[in-house]
Design goal:
By secondary structure, the protein is an alpha/beta fold. It has two domains: about 5-160 and about 295-349, Medium-chain alcohol dehydrogenases, catalytic domain (Quinone Oxidoreductase, Chain A, domain 1); about 165-295, Rossmann fold (3-Layer(aba) Sandwich). Helix content is about 25%, strand content about 25%. The chain has helices at about 45-50, 100-105, 155, 160-170, 190-200, 215-220, 230-235, 255-260, 280-285, 300-310, 325-335; strands at about 5-10, 20-25, 30-40, 65-75, 85-90, 90-95, 115, 135-140, 145, 180-185, 205-210, 225, 240-245, 260-270, 290-295, 320, 340-345. Strands 3, 4, 5, 8, 9, 16 and 17 form a seven-stranded mixed sheet that branches. Strand 10, helix 5 (about 190-200) and strand 11 form a beta-alpha-beta unit. It is globular and about 60 Å long.
């Protein structure tokens, strides 16, 4: 395959609506695979980056890092995949491969120049990366994962970002039988956190702003739901949890949430607010509590997550849309009007 143009949806400038265009995908190198994209999830971070909320972006920008599809061609040195295989690509498409973190399978924390993000980044040849709102993607075979047959491609797509974002901290901090876990926020991230924590055997509580999502939380596997808009919640649940995973992007009263932890409990931040959060040292030292963060997972752990989800029948709760609805979907995400992830049918691009 030589360099080729394919259809995509891109934002031409910051805050611009996404429009149909054509982009160029590189010629297959020895270890590259060509993926015919079937579905691409819409992540809240796509909106942040299109809007320039996290700093200057690279435009035109093709978002999308929740990619599920089929291998349609392979380079001459490929050994991991064959034409027709079901594959996924998440938040990064390369890393230095030699630093301590890369060797340990934690490429997301690459210290040799950082991971190469699937879009809005510059690859190691100096070219901008373009994401999954497209019909095809070329990626090194070492940065793709296998989607098990038990997972439909549409519900699997959001697992490549939202799923691994929750699976990694839940596994790292030992969610399982005998552990009490709270998930803050029941959205695109949080609903998968509930499913995964439940499947791991933990006692799961959802903390949401209002009681509105209680029925969904219980349906998805939560043992309890509490509204954080009610001050009594923080009195009732004081000192209860071993682990709290915060999925929301709003600035929270950290001291109040740290008060919900048991001695030696951990509060893990995975949502990224646009303003700093302040914490009193006393809220940490009283009970030897930990405040931590977590960002996606490496390739090996992402594969582990997909296999776990296949085994336990876990997929994202989705609304499949046509590409022409992307801008409408962005507006609905900002209005919290989705239960719980939009997925683009790439056949409509």
């Amino acid at each position: 395959m030589t360099d080729t143009t394919v259809a995509a949806y891109a934002a031409a400038t910051p805050k611009a609506p996404l429009e149909k265009t054509v982009i160029t995908r590189r010629e297959l190198r020895a270890h590259d695979i060509l993926i015919e994209i079937k579905y691409s999830g819409i992540c809240h971070s796509d909106i942040h980056q299109v809007n320039g909320d996290w700093g200057d972006g690279i435009f035109p920008m093709v978002p999308g890092h929740e990619i599920a599809g089929l291998v349609s061609a392979v380079g001459p040195g490929v050994t991991r995949y064959a034409v027709g295989d079901r594959v996924g690509v998440g938040c990064f498409v390369d890393s230095c491969r030699t630093c301590e973190n890369c060797v340990a399978g934690q490429e997301q924390y690459c210290t040799g120049g950082g991971m190469t993000a699937t879009y809005n980044a510059t690859d190691r040849d100096g070219e901008p990366t373009l994401g999954g709102y497209s019909t095809h993607l070329v990626v090194d075979e070492n940065y793709a994962v296998t989607i098990p047959e038990a997972l439909a491609l549409d519900v699997a797509a959001p697992l490549l970002c939202a799923g691994i974002t929750l699976y990694s901290p839940l596994r790292h901090w030992g969610a399982g039988p005998g552990k009490r876990v709270a998930v803050v926020g029941l959205g695109g991230l949080g609903h998968l956190g509930v499913k995964i924590a439940h499947a791991l055997g933990a006692e799961v509580t959802v903390l949401g702003r209002t009681p509105a999502k209680r029925p969904d939380a219980l349906r998805l596997g939560a043992d309890a739901y509490h509204a954080t808009g009610d001050p009594a919640t923080f009195e009732q649940l004081a000192g209860r949890f071993d682990l709290i995973v915060n999925t929301v992007s709003a600035t929270l009263d950290l001291e109040a949430y740290l008060g919900l932890l048991r001695t030696d409990g951990t509060f893990v931040q995975v949502g990224i607010p646009d303003q700093p959060m302040v914490v009193s040292p006393f809220a940490l030292v009283n009970g030897r509590k930990a405040l931590a963060g977590s960002m996606i997972g490496g390739i090996r752990e992402t594969q582990e997550m997909l296999d776990f989800c296949a085994e336990h029948g876990i997929g994202s709760e989705i609304e499949v849309i046509a590409a022409r609805q992307i801008n409408e979907a962005y507006a609905r995400v900002l209005a919290s009007d989705v239960r719980y992830r939009f997925v683009i049918d790439a056949a409509t691009i």
